[in-house]
Amino acid sequence: xxxxxxxxxxxxxxxxxxxxxxxxxxxxxxxxxxxxxxxxxxxxxxxxxxxxxxxxxxxxxxxxxxxxxxxxxxxxxxxxxxxxxxxxxxxxxxxxxxxxxxxxxxxxxxxxxxxxxxxxxxxxxxxxxxxxxxxxxxxxxxxxxxxxxxxxxxxxxxxxxxxxxxxxxxxxxxxxxxxxxxxxxxxxxxxxxxxxxxxxxxxxxxxxxxxxxxxxxxxxxxxxxxxxxxxxxxx
Length: 235
Ligand SMILES: Nc1ncnc2c1ncn2[C@@H]1O[C@H](COP(=O)(O)OP(=O)(O)OP(=O)(O)O)[C@@H](O)[C@H]1O
Ligand SMILES: [Mg+2]
Prior knowledge:
235 residues, alpha/beta, Rossmann fold, eight-stranded mixed sheet, 8 strands, 17% strand, binds adenosine-5'-triphosphate, binds magnesium ion
């Protein structure tokens, strides 16, 4: 199936320069870095924006790239970047409700770029990402593409990204300027290292949104952070 993507700020010189540099850095990090998990500490730090822009720049350089939207809890990629609705994606693919052909989209306006959207919110994202079907899928894509970029949920509320990291060659952490305290950053990088994954880079982003310089240090009411539909459901 085919999809056309809207890329916000695609003509912005500074953003294009930054992503050119990033794509060169990734290419120079070696041929073994094919499958990359991208995550952040909190939501809205620019993971999806970065994954899609990086994929676009790698493809403009002639690479074959697949983006996997593994944020099955709250992905906004379909709504924000495409005209599609009601599509099936990773959650249905890993639950064997659709075939790979039905879940895989070729991006019309970026030759070389394919994507698997997140699909509907499943009850068990961690189980699906820890399952051998996900591992097999990544192994297959390793053979077919130059790069496999996995977009994720943020790491402070949920550990999904660590499951993706297990099948990846490295993790890239996106940190939005002024959004994350040093202590949280240390704890998240420690979490990544303890999981056995390799943190291969940190991207300092600026999503352009003004907000308080740091998240307030307060305990969530229910004792844990929530993210995605489960967050809404618990209200
Ligand atoms: N470098 C940037 N320049 C301009 N806008 C940006 C930049 N990075 C992110 N944004 C914008 O900030 C918003 C949040 O970005 P994005 O959706 O990529 O965050 P996210 O980390 O994927 O969030 P979530 O955790 O909710 O999935 C979007 O509107 C995006 O277009
Ligand atoms: Mg996102």
